[in-house]
Design goal:
Blueprint: E1 4-8, H1 15-21, E2 23-26, E3 29-32, E4 35-38, H2 45-54, E5 60-62, H3 66-77, E6 82-87, H4 95-103, E7 111-116, H5 122-136, H6 141-151, E8 155-160, H7 165-169, E9 187-193, E10 196-203, H8 206-216, E11 223-230, H9 234-244, E12 253-257, H10 260-266, E13 271-277
Parallel strand pairs: 1-2, 1-6, 6-7, 11-12
Antiparallel strand pairs: 3-4, 3-5, 8-9, 8-13, 9-10, 11-13
């Protein structure tokens, strides 16, 4: 009986990939005033960004309640006796706590391991997809948990932000707070450090941001997986994939769109690249 893999929608794993790899994705929630939507389920990414940019209500986000995880665990417990849950960084969301609390609420005889990835977006997604492939090859829960913990320091996410306005509004700015003063004249590039957003550098234009993301990749001697994702700029994402194809097989580069919950904090025009280093 294969181990079942669970993650949350901040992994940015597309529905197609989740289905193909047998991953269950638990959505977070995005709220516009009194209206609440499940991330990627009840609101399309396109509709979300239209409302974010043009609407007068600034959205807020919230983690799934433990009950959402309980429902998933109970359903999967009918198919397996081992479940691995890998969540977004606990420094950015309460999702990890919800997943943990839900574990104590089920009576089914099923072992559940919950891991805080300390990552977000495809920084989390590539780790989860690698785990799902290993699970498909027959690894047990202990082996998989070990694989995930070893993969966490090998996952490197860099994000180009057009503005830090949304990250600051949502209270997720972390160690990038110091960049706020120069916000108007620069485009920040951030990463995840110790589970929080942290500054890497700053550039003057979207083109310079794209160059930085591209030049980040040759610094790794062995790459297991690559992912490119965007908020509202598919053409820039296409261009980055095209350029990266000179150093990594194009058909193996995963593509994703920043989810509405993440988009609340990233804002429009964000572009991200994740490298999963090979062992």
């Amino acid at each position: 009986m294969a181990v079942k893999i669970v993650t949350d929608s901040l992994s940015d794993i597309t529905d197609d990939l989740a289905q193909e790899l047998g991953i269950t994705v638990v959505p977070l929630y995005v709220r516009f005033g009194e209206e609440v939507y499940r991330d990627r389920v009840e609101m399309t990414t396109e509709e979300f960004y239209r409302r974010l940019v043009q609407g007068d209500i600034f959205p807020t986000t919230t983690q799934p309640p433990p009950g959402d995880f309980v429902d998933v665990y109970k359903k999967l417990a009918k198919e397996t006796d081992e479940i691995l849950v890998v969540t977004v960084s606990s420094m950015l969301s309460g999702t990890y706590q919800s997943a943990l609390q839900a574990k104590d609420r089920i009576d089914e005889k099923c072992r559940i391991e919950v891991i805080d990835s300390r990552k977000v977006a495809m920084g989390l997604g590539l780790i989860v997809m690698a785990a799902a492939k290993t699970a498909g090859a027959g690894a047990n829960l202990d082996e998989l948990a070990d694989c995930v913990r070893k993969a966490i320091p090998r996952s490197h996410l860099v994000i180009y932000f057009d503005t830090l306005k949304y990250l600051a509004k949502g209270g997720r700015i972390g160690k990038a707070q110091g960049l706020m003063g120069a916000m108007l004249s620069i485009k920040p590039i951030l990463t995840i450090k110790d589970g929080e957003m942290a500054p890497l550098t700053r550039v003057r234009s979207p083109a310079a941001g794209l160059d930085y993301l591209y030049n980040f990749v040759p610094g790794f001697s062995k790459i297991e997986a690559l992912a490119v994702e965007h908020a509202t700029t598919p053409d820039e994402a296409d261009e980055l994939v095209e350029r990266l194809s000179a150093i990594f097989p194009k058909e193996q580069i995963y593509r994703a769109i920043v989810s509405p919950v993440l988009g609340t904090h990233a804002g429009p025009n964000a572009l991200a690249l994740t490298v999963l280093e090979a062992e």
